[in-house]
Amino acid sequence: MPEDLPLLSVRELKALDAQPGRPFAAVVVVKKLVAKTASNGNPFLSLELGDRGGSFGCTLFNDSPLFEALKAAGDGAVVRIEGKTDFFQNRLSPRLHRAVLLSEEELGAPGVLDNLVELAPEKADVLWSELQAGIDSLQHPELKASTRAVFDEVGETFRWCPAAVSMHHAYRHGLLEHTVHMLRACLALLPHYPEVDRDLALAGVLLHDVGKTIEYEGTLATKRSRRGLLQGHVVLGYQLVRKAALKSRLDPDRIERLEHIILSHQGEPEWGAAVYAATPEAVFVSMIDNLDAKMGMVQRALRQAGADEEFSERLPGLSSPLLTRPVGPPPPDAKV
């Protein structure tokens, strides 16, 4: 393998002609590493590697000289890799021949981390100001105080936290972006549903995912914390909200309704909901959450799509690839 291969971004790597065996080099983050065992009993590593422009998966078997080094490096390691392109089910899944862990000095070089850390496309300061305005717009005093108290506790973590490990808004400031997008949708839709209590719905949107500030940890790669694994963000969020609401002397009926929004916002028990939504506000928030989660997947796939790609890779949250080519102009003889 030549030592002077130019470093490619993930976007550039995916843009290469889909021909196996093309040599490449790249600097990537180990976003996810799972040790597994094949049916023949041999261990292997399932890897997700990426940078700010995207990610790809590959498999490393225990007979590879890289196996132990990458297994020891773990999630969040930054490595310079060299290999040859290969494909599995029409998805990039390269064969790695070399992997070198970057030193602290190399990580500190100008631009290295900027190229690795995926950020929300909107500026975090602008999103944060919009979220604060949403809190300020709450009219019920104790509900407003409860919401403010939660963000006083989790605020800085909330600003940078991703909204997921991989499914949607899975990047720095992703939780903030997801919540503000839901806030915008909530404000736009509320006039159409007068049965929904405005303040409860707004507070539910703002607070529905605050448990993720405890559920997730990691700087360059996101993983679930001990409490995240043992309790999950729905329960963790319920605990944060209940503590703040009791301290703010919110009335028992609103406490119960707000807690119910948190406990039911995932929609289905198999998706992580503790209960099904059973109040107008809980149904409303759950539907907006589902909408923005899926549209977040769409937006990210469109951002990462190559110029020559017609479809994205299969998106698990949509159970389908996404058509990424924009709608073309109508034919000249089309009737308007």
Give descriptors for this structure.
five-stranded antiparallel sheet, Hypothetical protein af1432, 43% helix, globular, 336 residues, 9 strands, OB fold (Dihydrolipoamide Acetyltransferase, E2P), two-stranded antiparallel sheet, 2 domains, alpha+beta
Question: How much is the radius of gyration in Å?
Answer: 22 Å
Task: Kindly name the structural category.
Answer: alpha+beta
CATH class of the largest domain: Mainly Alpha
Gross geometry: globular
Low-confidence stretches: none
Distance between the termini: 58 Å
* Number of continuous helical runs: 13
Per the CATH scheme, the topology name of the largest domain is: Hypothetical protein af1432
- Assembly state here? single chain
Strand order of the largest sheet: 3-2-1-4-7
The strand count comes to: 9
Counting structural domains, the number is 2
Overview of this protein structure:
By secondary structure, this protein is α+β, with helices and mostly antiparallel strands. The protein folds into two domains: 107 residues, Beta Barrel (OB fold (Dihydrolipoamide Acetyltransferase, E2P)), CATH 2.40.50.140; 175 residues, Hypothetical protein af1432 (Orthogonal Bundle), CATH 1.10.3210. Helix content is 43%, strand content 16%. The chain has 13 helices and nine strands. A hairpin with a 2-residue loop joins strand 5 and strand 6. The longest helix is centred in the last third of the chain and has 25 residues. The radius of gyration is 22 Å and the shape is globular. The mean pLDDT is 88.
